[in-house]
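Section 5.1 Outputs to date
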Amino acid sequence: MNKDLQQSGALAKYGHHFDGLFLCPKNGGEILGKKVIIILVILILLICVVFFRAHLKIENTKTEYEKRVTSYLVDEKGFEKKDIKSVNGIYGIKSPPYYVIVVFEDEPYAQYFYFANDGVKQYDYSLSNEAWEKGILDETKLKNWDPHRNY
């Protein structure tokens, strides 16, 4: 510590000293530092819990939508589970934030998009380069595109 500061009595007069990043009272400075650290740790843990719960909710909702679309395809549209290559729930930024992408075994080059928030609705499709190479340029040649879908 600065010798001049000690001799002038400023430390005794004002009762403060610089301890790392915190300006703490002379008496109990360590306790204040520990309290701040404990509060920061608690805040960080609370933030982690909030983000974990949000992530868990997103994953659960995606799984629920996958189940709804699979059930719709099997129970209402008459597909067998073996006809479906993949069903993937997606969380995105756009509205609505949850949707499902389905790929069928007989059309691995096409992805079909479904909403499942208020009933299940097919709303779009996407074609890979393989589809273009096979001459499938639009929905007229897609086997699983439902032109009578509800919007």
